[in-house]
Amino acid sequence: MSHPRTVAEALRDASVTDRGITVREHDGRAVELPYRALYDTALTIGGALAAHGLHEGDRVALVLQEVNEFVRAFFGIACAGLVPVPLCPPAQAGDVATFARQSQHILQAAQAAAIITSSDVAPLLALDGLSTPPRVLTVNDLLAGPALSAPAATSLDAIGLLQFTSGSTAAPKGVMLSYRNIDANVTAISGPHGLNTTPEDSAVSWLPLYHDMGLIGMLLCPVYVKSNAVLLSPTLFLKRPSAWLDAISKHRATVSFAPNFAYDLCLRRVKPSQIASLDLSSWRIAGCGAEPIRPDTLLAFAEHFAPAGFKASAFLPSYGLAEHVLAVTLGRDGLVVDRVDSERLVRESQAVPADDDTPSVRIVGCGRPFPGHELKIVDDNLKEVPERHVGSIIVRGPSVMRGYFQEATASRRALRDGWLHTGDVGYLADGQLYVCGRTKDMIIRQGRKYHPPDLESAITDARAIAVSGVVVIGINHVEQPDEIVAVIEARASGRTAELEDDVRRRIRETSGLELDRVIVAPPGTIPRTTSGKVRRAETRLRLQAGTLLSAPAEERSRQPILAGTD
Amino acid sequence: MEAPDSETVAPSDTRFERETIHILKRLSRRPITPLSDSELMADLGFDSLQILELVGELEDHFNIAVPLNDLTHIRTVGQIAAAVQRLTESSGAPS
Fold this sequence. Notes:
- The complex is a heterodimer.
- By secondary structure, chain A is α/β, with parallel strands linked by helices.
- Chain A has 3 domains: 7-239, ANL, N-terminal domain (Rossmann fold), CATH 3.40.50; 322-440, Luciferase, domain 3 (Roll); 443-556, ANL, C-terminal domain (GMP Synthetase, Chain A, domain 3).
- In chain A, 32% of the residues lie in helices and 24% in strands.
- Chain A has a 5-stranded mixed sheet. In chain A, strands 18, 19, 21, 22 and 23 form a 5-stranded antiparallel sheet that branches.
- The radius of gyration of chain A is 23 Å and the shape is globular.
- Chain B has a single domain, classed as Non-ribosomal Peptide Synthetase Peptidyl Carrier Protein, Chain A (Orthogonal Bundle).
- In chain B, 37% of the residues are buried.
């Protein structure tokens, strides 16, 4: 086993190979970044950052739409011993006002000393409200050096990445990851109990680099392993989903990860005539994570792309969170679907395999924890529960974050006695993890526990119900009974009443739950994170405050363009 | 690749708007009558993913590249048509 390395050391080691990164920008432009040249550029950018008076440990924000600029700047920051803070750029944030608000919050929370951005984005940043405005630099500014002769010497325990979580329920918090954390998770993901990748593997990704799955999984993993990677702009993929599969086909890629919605998008938007020109037979790991995994989507994808050589055995469901660098478990057994009795799940928190004629929910297995890492399912008293009992997921080991940046209370809540409380609930069966949902979103009615993702999938999986977004929330009232509300986004069609009936019936039939209220609203109503996850807490607050539906159209359309990734 | 449009198109000022409306109708999952000031999300029911799909189609049809920052300003049919016209004219692509 090799010694842990910093990000800059991993790039230095990769730079002696003839491999590297190929970028495809949003307009289709290809940019080659061989590791050898990338390392030289990173030393130059690192030297320029040092010459600007930045010191080890200073936070440097990255707000870059061009993939090649992000990659070069990220490694430049790493070579200078500074701490990168990736931010969502404006095109993905949805609109300029949302971008300005979100970036201002993160720049303030991170106390960034500098921002690396582009000249077109710089004017969109709202820096006036910041207590100490950061220095604004462009990649071009930094290419003049002077170059470092070697990466700055940093401790493995120094912070190597400050990753702001998308905050589906609260304001974004900065997850502090040490180089040791990053190395531990990257090594586990790539190792024999993970994807078992070698330098001969090659990755293709369109995932945004300001989120953990893209940054850690599809950029750092290839660099640490010294394998090739092809990184597409997320916008290119969303404009033309076939670009993702084309790249896999053309580069004979072996590894690619994406959230569930990307597989669905390919099903709907890649035409049969395009499938004929694809060869997906090299794709050995089709990872899926970051949002609830729907077996129907994956099975339909496998069938649709079987003529191009895609193998359903390539699917690898995964579970993870930024507080654990990226991955907690990887489902190396492929797509394993557990069909459990929904009655006993909600009433007794037990995942009992269902008979054929019992109402059931399907939950996808996400694999086992890595060597050197521990995972437990515990009850409210932190006592470990037996297999097939639903409880809180807690994890311990070298991938667990150092804490939230300058958030002592939140850090103490998340990290207790070395255990990271993930905030997710699930159960173990045959040692494999099955994830049910987030603890704080759980809906309790008459002692029965419901997980919103199960209820939401029941609605979206129903072919007869055409919706573009759905969120189910429980609202606690003081003097009235609690209320369970489904907010459905649907295009105006004049059949609202019919749609409401369909949704109520579907939930009744699949879970036995009676919805108190169904709200049909135009697309864009449900608040989402920059990565497209629904913000349940905000939906609840706005519904209670009466501002969910009354927001002006301009406000409503502040919906992230990049839906569904994290 | 434009098929002849047998339907009545909504009144529009320019060829760019006419052709944009034609593409919008093809991409929409329900019958729509886009006008110059129709908002893509609020009036025509497009979601953010469909807007990017639209951008991809417009790029292919007009042989242009839409800058990323333009995406943050697109609201109405008229704004799209104006952006497309500006990009077509500045790129010098055959019209």
